[in-house]
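Hi all, a correction to my earlier message: I attached the wrong file for Acetolactate synthase small subunit. Here's the right sequence:
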Amino acid sequence: MRHTISVVVENNFGVLARVAGLFSGRGFNIDTLNVGPTHDPKFSRITATVMGDTQQLDQCIKQLKKLVEVIDVKDFSEGELAARELVIVKIAAEGNRSEIIQICDIFRAKIIDVSPLNLIVELTGDENKIEGFLEIIASYGIEDMARTGSAALPRIRKSNPRNEDKID
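and the right structure:
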């Protein structure tokens, strides 16, 4: 089963290495990884996706929570979070430029660099959108690519004073 793990940590040297070490020590391969500061620069959010057994992952999460610099750990299921990825792709465009531009328009991808032989395109979206774009564009020739892991936030519903649901 695929898991998206969100770990809020103190923004200190070596914390990422300790968190990643716990995953690898438990036999989990990190499929995607995204790290960045939160709204408070003293803290960072690590978002990792891993495949694995839920019971083994629960043990790993318990160990993560014991690390001094770890503030919070959550394992999110599908639909419990808003997640996006970024991909930057260099596409061979000689002779196919207009077709590639049409595909970019359909996916709402942004062309960020143009040369006589290629286009560099950026696209943000969920994993399915990114995969769909890459599958279609592959036939034109992907020359290079950089892809982030998921950046994600929880979709937690809380009641407000008027008993209306809102998403934070």
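Sorry for the mix-up. DSSP finds four helices and eleven strands in the chain.
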